[in-house]
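fyi for ur records
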Amino acid sequence: MLETNTFVPLQFFKKEAYTGSMKGMRYRLNKEGEELLAAVYPEPYSYEATPEEQKTRCAFPFSEEGREQALEWINQQYEEKLEIWNEAARK
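which gave:
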């Protein structure tokens, strides 16, 4: 699970998107305007190569509180869609 105290700082997102993976689930965070956009999608492809219908997105305020909310949301998505991520990890 992602933890707020060890995850990249908010300032990172001012320069570029951040991507990572967690046991079959990939995630992406990026700044767009005054929002922090979070997306989750199954492995194995990159964000750009994954079909849109396989992505789940949510927007948060671009603030430290929004960063924490985004990480909580990603963790929640991991738990709620565990079957999807497990299937992707087996491929």
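The chain has a mean pLDDT of 96. thats all i got for now
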